[in-house]
Structures
1.
Amino acid sequence: MDGADVSTRLELYRDPWEVKKKLTASDVGHLSRLLLPKARLENHVLKPMGEEMVRRVKSRDGMEVAVRDADTGTEHRLVFRYWASSRSYVLNGDWNRLFVRGRGLQVGDEIGIVWIPSLTNPKFIFKLLQKADRRTSNAATWSSR
């Protein structure tokens, strides 16, 4: 045996949050949409989706999806779509009301999303991973004035 099939990599923990994002002003603003990182979405969400689901996501109307909030246990319906004009994926619909205002999300908060590709009830799981440090945010705001 030449050892080519043996890995010496030690993995103690696999981070389940395949898609992570620090929220920007446009994510928490009046547009009511969460702009998602394209490369991560294509690798971790679209690949496990069937062709029909991907076609619906890329259609003009997008695809309605369940989004379960891992912190509150609530489940909401949002629209997952590809915006060709900006070449990006978004979750929109009631994003602002349900998540931004409902959870008190702010610029700099880090969120995580994972796609659960169930045959009967596929969904996104959402989690607030870390609140932004308000002392740092406030200091940056004051120093820029």
Note: Confidence is low (pLDDT under 50) at residues 137-145.
2.
Amino acid sequence: ASAVGRDVVLFLNQCVLINKLNQILLATPKFSISNALQENINSYNHAVLLSTKLSAYKGVTPGDHVLNILVKNNLHIPDNLAKDQHASNLLKNAVKEALTQKGALIKKNVKTSIKSKQSIYQLAAASVSGTRCTVTRKLHLEDNGGKFWDNVDDRLVMV
């Protein structure tokens, strides 16, 4: 076998290999939101919406926070998310839809608590039920007339 013959055989083998790789790549399914990813989206959406550190509850800010958490922790997202526009749009839409649903649920809880005269603590506890979020403080303020700040000062002195 001559050098040209070996080059032709190598070239043909490379072409066959490229064709097989193309068949494999074309056969891979497009990205879709898995149940595990949807569960992570829902839980992080709830946590982000209830966060005291969130600068805005409307617009893209909450969604960006959730997406950053998902990407940072690599939670069931494709490796090529930055390059795959379809996957990126699908993920953004799933986060946006879940945020809308969680926001509506929280609004509904607030309306119900106003009608039933729940305390803020009871509302917060009801809002985080079923999640891994917790209410960290229980505060109760009563109207002390004009002595509110005097009572705060006295309480600070005690502490």
Note: The radius of gyration is 27 Å.
